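Is this the right way to post structure tokens for a design question? Let me know if I should format differently. Anyway, here goes:
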């Protein structure tokens, strides 16, 4: 018989006051609202009040007759009974179970004790059947006793034997021998509770599922090695990892980032295993030379572990995941460039679902005959713009005729081609209907897109992503639904006379080491207008930016925002950063528009050095206000100049530490090329310009 349960009391240390719980949920709701606009908040998040009934986590479900859980039916002629369906729980259900019942506010060193205490209160101690599931077999067993502190159960085979083996034959005698070898104890998380309509074993099935999910997706072997044991394990580790898991399930994280995360987990697990083996082999009081070498190797592994864990935490944190992104180019998903066509010819690809004689005549007289009448050009017709672009070789041209084209895949441009619309921009529309990392992705050395309207749906990484090479966009409309334009490291984007709106993230994201030229664009009704990223790594150079005559308006946050690492100088704001900038260094960093550089004068070094170009007003060494309160073009230029100067000094100091006492300024002239003038900032929620420090 199942024991009577009633109200399930919380284990010692799990009690959470109603006021504290409401405050915690209020903070969680606030973060959720901030992140949901960026596409990182799980749609099954805290969408219900805590008092709402949620099947699967209501620990008073035992008071109502009958089970509230679903049955997981087996496919085919299986001899095994059905089990409870518990692996499809919502984010909120798991979140509530871990926070309120299983873990509470425990520290890392207390996790196992809290988990065993929770299991002891809700898991039936004996007399229930389960399917013991491993990679090799599934077998029906009966639980005779549960060892809560060890997270194991003592089981016996159900006779006659009901078993399904994978790739081998297992007899009843073999299974008995296996149980004898394990002393009839098996890990509790390998048990799946047999379905029972009475509802007496609902909480047992749910508790085992929470345990199984926790040790498969949340817990890391190296967590207990963390020296900082004073933090709340749920807040620091469980919540971000749980959120990431559901973000991945709902296709809210780029596939490249998911692959990188799993690769980091694998490397971290390997390093931890090597470190553990090395530590176990070391003698406690040995001073041998071999042990000394092992200790050095152990320190190296520790340093590698810390680097890997820091990268994992950045990906797990939804806010840092958004503002920092991932710095790899993810080129493995891009199509490989084909180069020139073997025959040496060039093809004009005409895209049209249907065409009248008048339209064909207009196309011939206005476009094809004037521009492509040479013998080297061939003509091909397509009904799908995706097919036309993917058929291109280097030097080809794609002309999209008026129409509304629906595409389910991503448009990838690996070769230097031109894609242009023939007609008014609003008449040549390409709309994405399926999910994917990006809508338009360019890795070409020199490509151009013009006179087209793109409508984005469910693209995780942006409506347009320039991963490498150079892309020129002219007279395009970009209607975003999730995220906007992304310019990756080492990529170049020239965007002229375009209209971009609707991004739930930034309209344009500019990564370190990139080149971005924005002239005459409208960027509006996004979460942020333009987001400029600066990483802490000294090798990440600042981007080269030109912003002229853009209208950035009606964005939820800032018109332009700079994301940069916080350090001792930046903690005191921009004033402290500028105090470090010597007055004698300002002329080296700033050249005025229209003035002749000293390097172009006779008798000077002719090596070209990128310059920071600003308007005729010199940069002030001290600012009267913080950058968050300053508006417009001047504020952006001053902050970017100061940030670039600080990074240059750090690189110079690093090279001097390597023994390069006489550092050539030409080698370090990786500064930001800034030309920011004539931009208009109107009705942005937080102002024209701001900074975010991480």
């Amino acid at each position: 018989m199942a024991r009577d349960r009633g109200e399930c009391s919380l284990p010692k240390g799990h009690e959470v006051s109603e006021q504290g719980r409401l405050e915690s949920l209020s903070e969680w709701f606030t973060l959720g609202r901030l992140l949901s606009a960026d596409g990182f908040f799980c749609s099954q998040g805290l969408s219900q009040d805590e008092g709402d009934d949620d099947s699967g986590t209501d620990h008073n479900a035992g008071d109502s007759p009958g089970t509230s859980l679903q049955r997981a039916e087996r496919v085919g002629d299986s001899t095994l009974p059905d089990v409870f369906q518990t692996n499809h729980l919502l984010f909120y259900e798991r979140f509530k179970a871990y926070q309120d019942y299983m873990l509470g506010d425990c520290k890392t060193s207390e996790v196992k004790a809290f988990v065993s205490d929770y299991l002891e209160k809700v898991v039936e101690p004996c007399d229930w059947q389960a399917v013991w599931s491993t990679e090799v077999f599934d077998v029906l067993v009966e639980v005779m006793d549960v060892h809560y502190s060890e997270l194991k159960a003592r089981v016996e085979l159900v006779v006659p034997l009901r078993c399904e083996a994978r790739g081998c034959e297992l007899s009843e005698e073999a299974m008995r021998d296996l149980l004898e070898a394990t002393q009839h104890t098996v890990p509790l998380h390998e048990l799946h509770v047999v379905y029972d309509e009475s509802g007496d074993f609902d909480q047992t099935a749910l508790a085992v599922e929470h345990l199984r999910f926790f040790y498969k997706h949340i817990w890391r072997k190296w967590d207990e090695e963390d020296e900082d044991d004073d933090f709340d394990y749920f807040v620091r580790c469980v919540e971000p990892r749980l959120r990431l898991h559901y973000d991945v399930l709902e296709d809210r994280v780029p596939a490249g980032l998911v692959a990188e995360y799993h690769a980091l987990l694998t490397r971290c697990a390997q390093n931890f295993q090597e470190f553990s083996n090395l530590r176990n082999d070391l003698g406690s009081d040995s001073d041998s030379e071999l042990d000394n070498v092992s200790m050095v190797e152990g320190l190296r592994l520790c340093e590698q572990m810390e680097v890997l864990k820091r990268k994992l935490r950045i990906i797990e944190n939804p806010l840092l995941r958004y503002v920092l992104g991932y710095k790899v180019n993810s080129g493995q998903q891009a199509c490989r460039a084909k180069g020139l066509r073997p025959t040496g010819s060039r093809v004009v690809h005409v895209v049209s679902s249907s065409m009248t004689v008048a339209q064909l005549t207009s196309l011939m007289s206005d476009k094809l005959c004037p521009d492509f009448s040479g013998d080297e050009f061939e003509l091909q017709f397509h009904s799908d713009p995706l097919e036309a672009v993917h058929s291109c070789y280097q030097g080809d041209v794609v002309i999209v005729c008026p129409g509304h084209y629906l595409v389910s895949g991503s448009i990838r441009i690996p070769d230097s081609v031109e894609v242009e619309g023939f007609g008014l921009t609003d008449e040549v529309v390409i709309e994405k209907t399926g999910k994917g990392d990006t809508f338009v992705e360019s890795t070409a050395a020199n490509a151009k897109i013009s006179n087209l309207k793109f409508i984005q749906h469910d693209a995780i990484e942006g409506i347009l992503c320039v991963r490498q090479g150079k892309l020129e966009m002219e007279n395009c409309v970009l209607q975003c639904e999730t995220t906007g334009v992304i310019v990756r490291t080492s990529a170049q984007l020239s965007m002229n006379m375009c209209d971009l709106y609707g991004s739930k993230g930034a309209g344009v994201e500019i990564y370190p080491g990139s080149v971005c030229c924005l002239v005459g664009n409208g960027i509006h009704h996004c979460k942020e207008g333009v987001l400029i990223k600066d990483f802490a790594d000294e090798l990440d150079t600042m981007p080269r930016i030109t912003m002229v005559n853009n209208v950035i308006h009606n964005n939820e946050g800032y018109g332009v925002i700079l994301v940069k690492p916080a350090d001792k100088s930046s903690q005191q704001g921009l004033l402290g950063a500028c105090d470090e900038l010597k007055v004698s260094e300002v002329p080296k960093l700033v050249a005025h528009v229209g003035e002749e550089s000293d390097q172009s004068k006779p008798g000077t070094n002719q090596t070209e050095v990128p310059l920071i170009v600003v308007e005729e007003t010199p940069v002030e060494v001290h600012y009267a206000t913080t950058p968050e309160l300053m508006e417009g073009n001047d504020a952006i230029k001053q902050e970017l100049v100061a940030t670039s100067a600080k990074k240059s000094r750090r690189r110079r100091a690093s090279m001097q530490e390597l023994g390069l006492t006489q550092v050539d300024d030409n080698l370090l002239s990786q500064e930001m090329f800034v030309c920011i003038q004539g931009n208009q900032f109107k009705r942005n929620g937080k102002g024209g310009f701001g900074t975010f420090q991480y």
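Format looks fine. Someone answered above. Worth noting: Confidence is low (pLDDT under 50) at residues 1-64, 327-334, 568-630, 660-672. The CA atoms of residues 235 and 377 lie 62 Å apart.
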